[in-house]
Amino acid sequence: MKNFFQHIKFKYDIETCITLKHYSKEKQKLAKQKQRLIYLLTCRDYGLTPKHLTNTTIKLSQLFTTQRILNQVSKIEQKLHTKILNLEITQTNLTIKTIEKNIIHTNNKIKSILNEYEYKTFTTKQTYLFNSITAKTKLTHSSKIDKLKEKLVNQIGITFNEEWFVNKTDIEFPNEVKWLLSLGNKFALPITSTNFSPIHIIADIEQAIQSIEDDSEKDVSRSKIANKISDYKRRFKNTQKERFILKVHKTTTQFLNNHKNTIIVTKADKGNKTVIMYKKDYFDKMNTLLEDKNTYKTIRVDPTQKLQATNNTLVNELFKNEYIDRFQKNKLHCSASIAPRLYGLPKIHKPGLPLRPISSSMNVPCYSLSKYIGTVIRNIVSENYNIKNSFQLQEKLKDITLDDDDVMVSFDVISLFTNIPTYLAIKNILKEWNIIKDHTKIPKTKFLKLLEFCLRDNNYFQFDEKFYSQTYGMPMGNPLSPTVADIILDNLLDDTIEHLNKIGIKMKFIAKYVDDIFAIIKLKDIDTILNQLNSYHNKIQFTIENEHNNSLPYLDLLIHRENNQIIYNWYAKETASGRMINFHSNQPTKQKINTAQNFINKVLDLSDKRFETDNIRKIKTILKLNDYPNYIINNLFKSRTEKLKTNLNNNNNNNTITKSNNNTKKFFSVPYVPKLTDNRSLHQIIQKENISFAHKSNFTLKPIFTNTKSKIQKQQQHNVVYEIKCNGKKNENCDLVYIGQTKRNLATRLAEHEADIRKHKETTGLSQHITTSGHTVDFKNVTILDRERKLNTRLTLESLRIQQQIKRTMNTKEDTDSIKQSYAVAI
Fold it and tell me: First and final CA of the chain: distance in angstroms?
């Protein structure tokens, strides 16, 4: 380049040479300024404070010693840094524009002086130099960003546990993306101006307001919530921690979108971990499972609508014959069913990453009927063997002592649900008809028909746009299947114990949780008992686990034998991750504290005192991995100690009086928005002691996890608020819309709208508008605005959506009677 400038100086003049060098310096300056802008913008997006800004105010904190004042100084510093950072971004943008103008001007000047070859040689070299400086500056700034991120992460108290993120692909994930995905799909994101939805908050709170009897109180509460929402929108601002999480979420979303055709993001079958696997591998494994002709077969058509009609016919017959009342009839009636959808969860603890098939059976044709039948036959489930949890097992074992020749074992059924024959299930249920008939008015023949309908006819599912029938076993996901499994295993154990007693074999103790059996038996009888269990049915087979080193894991207990006595310790499987609600998740602090406290109580209450020190260490490790601060962890243990002392004193005090509260509380679910819908804020709005709120999280990581279930088409969606646009007519545009709601499938409701228009029935604002104007309706592009299962909340959402577009809706006055004008200011 030096020789080139000498050439230019010799051929032209010194001024030309100066112009070229000025162009070169401006290009280099532009490269640096552009990277600086990216650096400053990244700092702002992540809520980072560049070091040069920190250094400008570092001496401020040295002027004060009082912690309260230092906290105030820190807030002022943060605000100052943010303002200066914004000014720097503005200044850098202006500088870049100035440099770009200078470059354009200089470039035109050079182009008019140099010949084509000289100009191309010079600009090519400058482009290379520009890219080189850009790469070098980018590397420097990236290093600074990484250090600032690390500093902020430590300051916020974020922990990344790599064990929670299982990557089964060759794709390299950025650390911050791995961190966010490792938190799981239930992690709740901070509220932003984009995802903040006043309409949904109002719709949920309105249900609580409607429970107030006094109309004037209702209006006061509505005004309060509207004003509070308006004020919140004006004052809303994310904290530094929230800005960091939101930026990582944006980065993660972009990264996953770049790989959406290649990978799936899901959760592990066991252990509560996030798993990344290739999409092709997932579908190959699922299709291999479905190729098992002994268990599945393909079916040509979707039987859902036919089964829905059969379900409703059966329910109507039950009502007509007065076997059920009208309330039960309405509950069991199905109007918006969908096919069960199969998906798989990876078993990361097994070689080859096999998938566990799971059927999502909510809203299938027989779902409600199966639940109803399940509650009836639940009465024949034996209480002799079944336990609800580890505490109940401890209670049953409290008087048991072990002999030297006793051994603790656990039996586990291999794939229980898919191996129970339908005929065997029905046979065992009807065998107990003398008990069942006391809990239902339905006669035996009709009850048999219902059982066959729920267990045989509805044993199908959808996967990857294809439909399959499960030819053997209980329907996966059907709410009736777990109860049937309990009944089968109860009968199996009854038969086994009866046979063992005949040949002189006694089992000292036996208990069952679903398909896991815990038993204390004689060492010499192990093989005989296992063989007898496996003889019940060739498809229902057991594996056995013997005690090792005088202990056996069962549920979340490690059961020890010591001097012929049984003692317990908390047990977590090797696959268990320890992941729970993260402290940085945008959920009420009380929920997080209760989760941690319940975990502490469970571990320590299940365990013998001698294991306490080791368990406390484990608990603290797990809570720290979930980002719980040390001071909260210490306070939780302190609170437990104080509570135990209080309970001990109360037990020793015979004069303790327990006060009972006869007021029944009504609970209402609302989205959690800090300083707006927390309990304190809501009780300021609705001042009723009998009304309480349960918070839910509407904005979680779930949308960025892959939905591996077959997609439900728009026309099949139900419990929705929808919007229909008017197409106008030739040479006449129309901007009006119709907003409605339906519990049934959207296709059914749209067909009714079409029929009304065709028959000129002016039953809705839509049919009135089309009939009188001669316009056409855009039924192909109907928009689903909201999905809401509860009718009253859905009606409120409909009203609010109409109010939101009041100037362009064709809805009639009858549609908007429930609109509350006091909400207009908030939406």
Answer: 64
Q: Is the per-residue pLDDT at 524 higher than 50? A: yes
Question: Across the chain, which distance is largest between two alpha carbons, in Å?
Answer: 117
Are 551 and 560 in contact by the 8 Å Cβ rule? The answer is yes
Task: Tell me the average pLDDT across 94-106.
Answer: 95
Q: What is the DSSP letter of 506?
A: -
- From the centroid of its chain, how far is CA 424? 37
Rounded to 10°, the helix 116-156/67-113 angle is 170
Please state, as a whole number, how many other Cβ atoms lie within 10 Å of the Cβ of residue 182.
Answer: 21
Which ranges of 457-543 would DSSP assign to H, the alpha helix? 481-502, 526-534
Mean pLDDT computed over every residue of the chain: 91
Q: How far apart are CA 534 and CA 496, in angstroms?
A: 10
Q: CA Rg, the chain, in Å?
A: 34
Structure tokens at 753: 């709208």
Structure-token pair, residue 662: 């006869």
CB-based burial, 677-688: b 16+ in 10 Å, e otherwise? bbeebbeebbeb
> For 302-317, b where at least 16 C-beta lie within 10 A, e where not — what string?
ebbeebbebbbebbee
Say if residue 703 is exposed, middle or buried (CB neighbours under 10 Å; 0-12, 13-18, 19+): exposed
Residues 238, 101: Cα–Cα separation, whole Å: 37
Pair of tokens at residue 48: 């980072």
Whether the Cβ atoms of residue 454 and residue 581 lie closer than 8 Å to each other = no
Nearest to 185 by CA among 790, 697, 809: 697
Check: CB of residue 62 under 8 Å from CB of residue 74: no
Burial, 93: exposed, middle or buried (Cβ in 10 Å; 0-12, 13-18, 19+)? middle
Which 3 state secondary structure label does DSSP give 473?
coil
CA distance 264 to 344: 12
CA torsion, points 220, 223, 225, 230, in degrees to nearest 10? Answer: -160
Residue closest to 214 by CA, chosen among 826, 688, 684: 688
Q: Using DSSP, state whether 572 is helix, strand or coil.
A: coil
What is this structure's pTM? 0.88
Closest CA to 550 of 731, 703, 733, 402: 402
Backbone phi, psi, residue 360, to 5° = -85, 110
Beta bridge partners, 67, equal: none
Do residues 792 and 210 make contact, with C-beta atoms less than 8 angstroms apart? Answer: yes
Residues 34-80 pLDDT 10s: 999 999 999 998 888 999 888 887 777 777 777 788 778 788 888 88
Structure tokens at 710: 């077959």
Letter string b/e over residues 140-164, b meaning 16 or more CB atoms within 10 A of that residue's CB: ebeebbeebbeebbeebebbbbeeb
User: What is the SS3 string spanning 361-380?
Assistant: CCCCCCHHHHHHHHHHHHHH
Q: pLDDT (tens digit, 9 = 90+) per residue, 569-596?
A: 999 988 889 999 999 999 999 999 999 9
User: Residue 505: which region, alpha, beta or left (left: phi > 0; alpha: psi -120 to 50)?
Assistant: beta
At 657 the pLDDT is 44
Both structure tokens of 512: 């069952």
Has residue 172 got a pLDDT over 90?
yes
Say how far apart CA 248 and CA 255 lie, in whole Å: 10
Could you say which DSSP state residue 689 is in?
A: T
Q: Which of 760, 740, 714, 752 is nearest to 809 (CA)?
A: 740
Amino acid of residue 215:
D
What is the C-alpha to C-alpha distance for residues 611 and 596, in angstroms, rounded to an integer? Answer: 19
Listing DSSP states for 90-101 in one string gives HHHHHHHHHHHH
List strands edge to edge, sheet with 557-562: 551-554, 557-562, 565-570
pLDDT tens, 120-142?
988 999 999 999 999 999 999 99
**Residue 699 corresponds to which tokens in the numbers above?**
């904005």
